[in-house]
Amino acid sequence: MTGTEPAITLGGMSPTERPTVYVETYGCQMNASDSELMLGTFAARGYTPVDRPDGADVILVNTCAIREHAEQRVFGRLGELKRHMARDTILGVTGCMAQRLGADLLRRAPHVSLVVGPDGYRALPALVDGARAGARAVDTAFHPDEHYEDVRPRRAAGVKAWIPVQRGCDYRCTYCIVPTTRGPERSRRLADVVQEVRDAVAAGMTEVVLLGQTVNSYHDGTADFAALLRAVGAVPGLRRLRFTSPHPNDFSTRVLAAMADTAAVCEHVHLPMQSGSTRTLRRMLRRYTREEYLRCVDRLRTAIPGLALTTDVIVGFPGETDEDFQETLSAVDVVGFDDAYTFKFSPRAGTPATRLPAEETVPDDVASGRLTELIAAVRRRGRARNVQLLGTRHEVLVEKRARRGDALQARTRDFKTVLLGPDAAAVGQYCTVALTGTTGSTFTGVVVDSGAARRRTALPLAAG
Ligand code: SAH
Ligand code: SF4
Ligand code: F3S
């Protein structure tokens, strides 16, 4: 804003008062990235982002609908937030639960004024103005061209940038609500993504994570995901390139070659498996068999030696038998995942899985037992791998102060967390560490070289 322009007046506030906005985020990285876009939208309208809800002029809860439990948490939180609202605070619900429940949410939470789905965020400040005048609004329209290209995200402080490259999902996994809440798949233009990566690097970030529900099916009409990886990997100053989540069916030979050739691509892939049983995978409509999944793992490991793999697994999908579950346990063993997110199936209204015969429902105690067993199997494998790594050296990027204590939290290229002493290095620095201890999942380490020894050479020339 220049000095000659009139100050923006919002809802009767004096021009000198900058209104505040607080956003609380649930769910996946896509939601976290959307929250940054929302904050950017409000910042462009003169709002100050704040990190506590107390008395904020606008409170937004950016929600997730993936499992029933996620939604229950949000309803609980909406109740709690009443205590933090000032008389004029506008409370809005955004994200996947907003999209799924729409006007129903206004009925169930009378102190909520706005319900806005993932394609409606550019209208948020205007809707807030309307809410100040007493309106309650619901906007859950899909806008298949919406990528918020003109919005500058207000990024959380940190050393890495999450960059959405694709919105929506065209797969139809039978358990999943995401196609309903996020709409059809669409990709941003390659040039726009590359520009955002350049901006992030110029702002001091050296790592980016490309985001999409099936990120490797990215296609902007001209360029595929392979071309995107190569273009992003060539941005000067970018040192680490990650992406999440890929679908096993979209790892074309071109994508694998681009991963192998692009030095910034890190040696870690999060490859959701969901089940190790072909029968269950078919009923989930995952579109691959157990063997095809394992073959994808082999191809990835051949392309990127030393690749770490993490995954998502669901237990208790309707009709899952003990044998099916044993197949999942054996797949976890065969692959040797470094880590896994494990979930108990949660029926989502409107998804095809809810139309399966009631007698196929897996009793809750059976599903819970499987979950416990699966978690133990994942931990056993992960611990065994991690113990073998003790004494080895790795390049780490120091990401932040750890949540507890004053240790520094750093990350290897293959996504292991390493805790370092408080004065070992600076946040944002790359250095080489030796791994000295492990809890089974995370490591402690000491800096052996305050420069970085890269595991892969031929990085693009770094520029200032
Ligand atoms: N697009 C990503 C997944 C997004 S959802 C992908 O396809 O890989 C993240 C994870 O939540 C999924 O991988 C799945 O394991 C889990 N999930 C999704 N729907 C679920 C449901 N109804 N019940 C339990 N877990 C679910
Ligand atoms: Fe959901 Fe499947 Fe799409 Fe992932 S690929 S978001 S699990 S429908
Ligand atoms: Fe949840 Fe929506 Fe992400 S349902 S997992 S916030 S896409």
Describe this structure in words.
This protein is an alpha/beta fold and 464 residues long. The protein folds into 3 domains: 20-139, Methylthiotransferase, N-terminal domain (Rossmann fold), CATH 3.40.50.12160; 160-388, Alpha-Beta Horseshoe (pyruvate-formate lyase- activating enzyme), CATH 3.80.30; 393-449, Beta Barrel (OB fold (Dihydrolipoamide Acetyltransferase, E2P)). It contains 13 helices and 19 strands. The longest helix is centred in the last third of the chain and has 26 residues, at 364-389. It is globular. 44% of the residues are buried. Mean pLDDT is 92; it is low at 1-12 and 457-464. Bound molecules: S-adenosyl-L-homocysteine, iron/sulfur cluster and FE3-S4 cluster (F3S).
User: How many strands in all?
Assistant: 19
Helical segment count: 13
Helix content: 25-40%
The description of the largest β-sheet is: 6 strands, parallel
* Approximate shape: globular
Specify the CATH architecture of the largest domain. Alpha-Beta Horseshoe
Tally of distinct domains? 3
What is the fourth-level CATH superfamily of the largest domain?
Answer: tm_1862 like domain
